[in-house]
Sequence to fold (273 residues):
Amino acid sequence: MPELPEVEITLRGIEPYILHQKISNVIVRNHKLRWPVQNDINQQVNGKNICKTQRIGKYLVLKVETGSIIIHLGMSGSLRVLKNNTPIKKHDHIDIEFANNIILRLNDPRRFGAFLWTTEEPEQHKLLKNLGIEPLSNKFSAKNLAQLTKKSKSPIKTFLMNSKNIAGVGNIYANEALFDSKINPNQPTNSIPENRLNSLLKSIKKVLRQSIKQGGTTLKDFVNSDGKKGYFQVYLKIYGKKNKPCVYCKTPIEENRMGQRSTFYCPNCQKLF
DNA sequence: CGAGCAACCTGCATGC
DNA sequence: TGCATGCAGGTTGCTC
Fold:
């Protein structure tokens, strides 16, 4: 599921409830996520206050004085703020209980998500230190994108989805941003002229911002911290639209596979050049 | 090095 | 109805 907008929505939803609150317990019902959840996680954080929360790419970081909890939602994860004693549902793997009587509950049917403890600076953690540019930051500029793309011969969609280049763009938003800027997903990255790169840059920021505004995209599992679904799926123009008419030219949208991911494009609007 | 792809999991839609 | 197949917002870590 969760790409950058969904993780951002989750962060905004949980932060007001947990920032500066004291952790009173961590319950791990199933430690088998992408990596095993550390056995002593409760001893590490019990009694500590959350002093900072942040999103880095698709990762959420909950900082306490002595280290950080790093959370990734994988394909199907969600985090909810609930009252203590809320009955457990299937795939509710972890609860962080707080002294103010709320819990932060991780549900993740596919268990591709992660829940890690680190005493390093989170940016230095193995999984985060090679992340590329934050696409909504000022560092994601025309100049930097031009610099970054000239080294890569990969198809542009593969480039966009590689978190070493850009952190947080996944399959939905790569498809949408390429359609919005009328670039073919297979266009070799280093063959894209500067004016087209600038338009791609704007499309990426636009699509991510619009999705955040709509509470993210819910295809299946994603819910925000209140348990509500996102609404941006209503505004998707290309993702999942195989054989539907292109909103600009009515040409039927085509689908193929790049890597192992579904790729949608309008053969008329997104011609290779 | 990079590119390609299997693997990690459950659930759901589809087709025989 | 039942069973097999394939696919799903991600990413690591193999092989070549």
In short: The mean pLDDT of chain A is 96. Strands of chain A lie at 23-28, 52-56, 59-64, 67-72, 78-83, 92-98, 102-107, 114-118, 254-258, 261-265.
